[in-house]
Amino acid sequence: VLTGEEDETTVLAVFGKLFQMEGDQWKERGVGTLKLNSGGVAPRLLMRNNKVHKIILNVKLFPEMWCTYTCTLAPYSHYVRFGALEGGVATQYTLR
C-alpha cells in the first residue's frame, strides 16, 4: 500500500490527541502519531488516526506558522498549539 510518504523522511513523531478549533469550541479530530516529514515538495505535518489510519491532518509548513507549548502542574495540561492552513483557511490545532 502506497502512503505518499515513500520519498519523505520523518524528522519527528509524537503520539497524542488532536483537536481543531471550530467556531468557539475545540473539536476532537482523533488519536494517533503526528509526524513532521521532510523530503517532499515542502515539509509537512501528517497525522493518521491510530485505529483506522485515516489521515486527520495533512498540512504544509510555511514561514508564518506559529506554535506554542504549554506545560502546567495540572494533569493532562501539557499541549502544543499551532496554526496551519487547511484548504486555504487559517485553522488552529491543539495536540495533547
Automatic annotation (TrEMBL):
Residues 1-65 form the RanBD1 domain. One of its GO terms (cellular component) is nucleus. It is found in: Nucleus. It comes from the Eukaryota. Keywords: Nucleus. Pfam families: Ran_BP1. InterPro entries: PH-like_dom_sf (IPR011993), Ran_bind_dom (IPR000156), RanBP1-like (IPR045255). SMART domains: RanBD. PANTHER family: RAN BINDING PROTEIN (PTHR23138), RAN-BINDING PROTEIN 3B-RELATED (PTHR23138:SF142). This is RanBD1 domain-containing protein.
